[in-house]
Amino acid sequence: CIDQFQGKIEEKYCSHLQKPRTQKACRSVRCPSWKANRWKECSVTCGSGVQQRDVYCRLRGVGRVADEMCDPSTRPYFQRRCWQQDCIQYQWVAGEWQNCSSSCTKKETHRQVKCTNAQNIQVNESFCDPSTRPLSIKKCENPSCRYIVVTGDSSQCAGNCGFSYRQRITDCIAIWPTEKYKLHQLWPIDYRECPVLPSSQVYKCNFRSCLHVATWKVGKWSKCSVTCGAGTMERRVECMAASGLSSNLCLKRLKPDAQKKCYINDCKTFTSCKEIQVKNNITKDGDYYLNINGRIIKIYCADMRLVNPKEYISLAKGEEDNFSEVYGVRLQNPYECPYNGSRRQDCACKNDY
């Protein structure tokens, strides 16, 4: 408040006048800020990969400016880990070829070809690409054999082979050339397949009636142990003599499988133990197969008689190693420090898990 001579006086002398404002809003230049574009596609089509996006400093009305103008501590992440579906969902698995050298007359050999899923469990062949199916039959490229017929007196047969009259015995032998050692191997051939015709007076001795043969006997396969997902089937396998009694003379390397995997996928899969409990009215604790993010995984359902059952993953090693641990600290940038399990305290971390 001033007088007519521009001298400052008390404000009460200006009380009859409206006092001008002492401050007003002003608009300064806008501050630059970080701009993050959309995440790009994952670097892989399956498995673990990296996703990136463009992050830059910008000023409204101007556009992109130098990154130094923005606060580096608030810069958003420009890349992150991404995970697509399992790379191997279904694939063909081929076994070993059967030995071609078991007979000179063997024209072709076989091997087992099956379609398996990511857990190496056999599934229906329709899941695998038929155009990539490996061959299961091929021709045997055996060298030519020479054949001889060996005959002898019936006295060479143990116990006269069950015959009470004298006769001649006949064996058909294939001479099999081996190139590696320039030697020859002799293979007995089924007499009916022998290309060398003996005289009509020669008879074959019935060797089998003279021997006590033991063979593996198998029963029927049981039903699959589960109603959905991956399970096992079992059958009885025992060594039996020709008399019908148990024997220990069978070759162990020829023993047929007593157990095999089975997979049933034409039934409803459940996503939680609670769902199994409610929809199937099951109250028994045990292993069940659940659909976890599209994968069939064996889960142990506990406390199935209670309202909220618990779910556990059974580790393969057994009870002594059957545990898990949650480590609450994670790296702010997973590419700055080792991320193969080491726990370095000098890395930039956040404890938010």
Automatic annotation (TrEMBL):
The GON domain, residue ranges: 269-353
Annotated compartments: Secreted
Claim: Transit peptide is one of the keywords in the record: no
GO cellular component: extracellular matrix; extracellular region
UniProt-listed PANTHER family: ADAMTS A DISINTEGRIN AND METALLOPROTEASE WITH THROMBOSPONDIN MOTIFS PROTEASE, PAPILIN
One MF term in the entry's GO annotations: metalloendopeptidase activity
Membrane found in the keyword field: no
Keywords: Metal-binding, Repeat, Secreted, Signal, Zymogen
Name of the molecule in the record: GON domain-containing protein
InterPro entries: ADAMTS_ADAMTS-like, Pept_M12B_GON-ADAMTSs, TSP1_rpt, TSP1_rpt_sf
Any matching Pfam family: GON
Gene Ontology terms: biological process: extracellular matrix organization; proteolysis
